[in-house]
Amino acid sequence: MEESTQDREILVQQENRPVSVQNSPKQVRLAISAFYFMQGVCFASWASRIPTFKAAMGLNDAELGSILFALPAGQIITMFFSAKLTTHFGSKKMLRATAPLYAIALTFLALATAGWQLAAFLVLFGITGNLCNIALNTQGVAGENYYGKPIMSSFHGAWSIGNLTGALIALGLVNLKLGMYTHFWIIALISLTNVAISSKKLLDHNPKPEVQVEKTKFFTMPQGVLVLLGIIAFCSMATEGTMFDWSAIYFEDVVKLPHNKAIIGYASFMFMMASGRFLGVYLIGRFGRKNLLQISGTIISVGMALAVIFPNIIIAILGFMLIGLGVSSIVPMVYSIAGNNKKVPAGKAITMVSSIGYFAFLFGPPLIGYVSQLSSLRYSFGIISVFGLLITFLVTKIKAIN
């Protein structure tokens, strides 16, 4: 299928270069979704095994929190040049290069036998993950505009489905007592197969751009609305980071589930996060982005409060499901709003916003560990409920959201 003039103009604005599209919008959407899905599977494969690492290395909450600092640190390292690379090489070429590296970096984690080794491998996992993430979200913004509907939320829904799938695979393999190294290589091989198949359907750059893009600095500090969007992303990603890294441990230490069943907390969160993202297209149309962001912030606070005040299995699962629903559409909406900013190229706008958000991953999970060591994991989770209220408040300050 040859793209229309309107499609070409939209994609020039988003990726700041002309593109050559030979696949239908549905084929492009499916291919991009497959990359989001596999990135989610890879991340969940690590996150679901965190209790195993904690037990095997004899780590307390503060020590684990310090080690968890390494993954977002790796992400932060690349934020200064990931957009530049994506803009220069194009998101398709970047995904072909970085998605395999991300999958292989996952396997290195299983080789760690001491905390410092795990931290070093997590830095590598974070570096490859962020390079892949910026390229993927840039491709996602272009794919959304090529498709002609607000489907960014569904792309992130595919990531969440992948995350849920990865958690369920881990749950099964933990009970089958399969080693982590074998587990992670199974996931890596599936990811490499996906790259070989799905990358052919991605949106491609024309090697001879017809439109000149105004040169910008190597790294530009976010300003104006991008700062507020970044803070909203920070609050949402701090909540997500806490759930990714600590939910299984919360169900093991606070809710008192056995080790081989503690992943149910993580899985319940991811189930609703995935469901909410696939409902995102309808919900945005029904409520509008501004109202939906405010509702989402409130739901996060209510869900976290329930899980903290009533830490029994039924209420905790309900609370985690509400948190998953609350965070589900926030980051996709923020990235979509940022990526459509007319003053900044899509890749750089997304990087500016996500850079602020990644500081949540940098400080959030370690903070939970330190507060937990001083008081309890239950009270440290209570801190996160404040972030939901902050999201609701900040959205009222952004007039550009419709």
UniProtKB/TrEMBL annotation:
Q: Tell me what this protein is called.
A: MFS transporter
- Chief subcellular site? membrane
Stretches assigned to the Major facilitator superfamily (MFS) profile domain: 28-400
Keywords (alphabetical) are:
Membrane, Transmembrane, Transmembrane helix
Q: Where are the transmembrane segments?
A: 67-87, 157-174, 180-197, 218-239, 263-285, 292-310, 316-338, 350-371, 377-396
Q: What's the protein's topology in the membrane?
A: Multi-pass membrane protein
Give a Pfam family name: MFS_1
Q: Which Gene3D superfamilies match?
A: MFS general substrate transporter like domains
Where's it found, cell-wise? Answer: Membrane
Q: Which PANTHER family match?
A: BYPASS OF STOP CODON PROTEIN 6, INNER MEMBRANE PROTEIN YBJJ
